[in-house]
């Protein structure tokens, strides 16, 4: 989360600097402001969970349907 905060802070600086500078440096600042969020999200997602714990595996229970349930449903349709 700290890396993302730093990247977004740099983005704000790029936007402000892009307003006040001219020439090629202006385009570099605006390009940084445009592309930096993409790379910030990629870096934030690549680092994973910082707590050191892995996620618990969840297993869904097996669903059993009796054949009699279908017979009751068919009688209600008729």
Features:
78 residues; mainly alpha
What's this, in brief?
The chain has 78 residues and is mainly alpha-helical. The chain has helices at 2-20, 24-47, 67-77. The protein is built from 3 helices and no strands.
Describe this structure in words.
With 78 residues, the protein is mainly alpha-helical. The chain has a domain at 1-51. 69% of the residues lie in helices and 0% in strands. The protein contains three helices and no strands. The longest helix has 24 residues, at 24-47. The radius of gyration is 27 Å and the shape is elongated. The termini are far apart. The mean pLDDT is 81.
Number of helices: 3
| Rg measurement, Å | 27 Å
Mean pLDDT over the residues: 81
List unreliable stretches of 5+ residues.
none
> What percentage of residues falls in helices of 4 or more residues?
55-70%
Strand content: under 5%
Report the major sheet: none
**Structural class estimated from helices and strands:** mainly alpha
General shape: elongated
C-alpha termini separation: 60 Å
Secondary-structure element sequence?
HHH
- Number-wise, the strands total 0
Secondary-structure topology with pairs:
Layout: H1 2-20, H2 24-47, H3 67-77
Helix pairs in contact: 1-2
């Amino acid at each position: 989360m700290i890396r993302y905060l730093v990247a977004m802070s740099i983005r704000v600086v790029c936007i402000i600097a892009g307003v006040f500078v001219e020439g090629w440096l202006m385009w570099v600042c605006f390009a940084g402001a445009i592309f930096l969020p993409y790379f910030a999200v990629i870096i934030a997602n690549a680092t994973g969970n910082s707590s050191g714990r892995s996620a618990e595996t969840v297993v869904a229970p097996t669903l059993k349907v009796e054949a009699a349930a279908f017979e009751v449903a068919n009688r209600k349709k008729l």
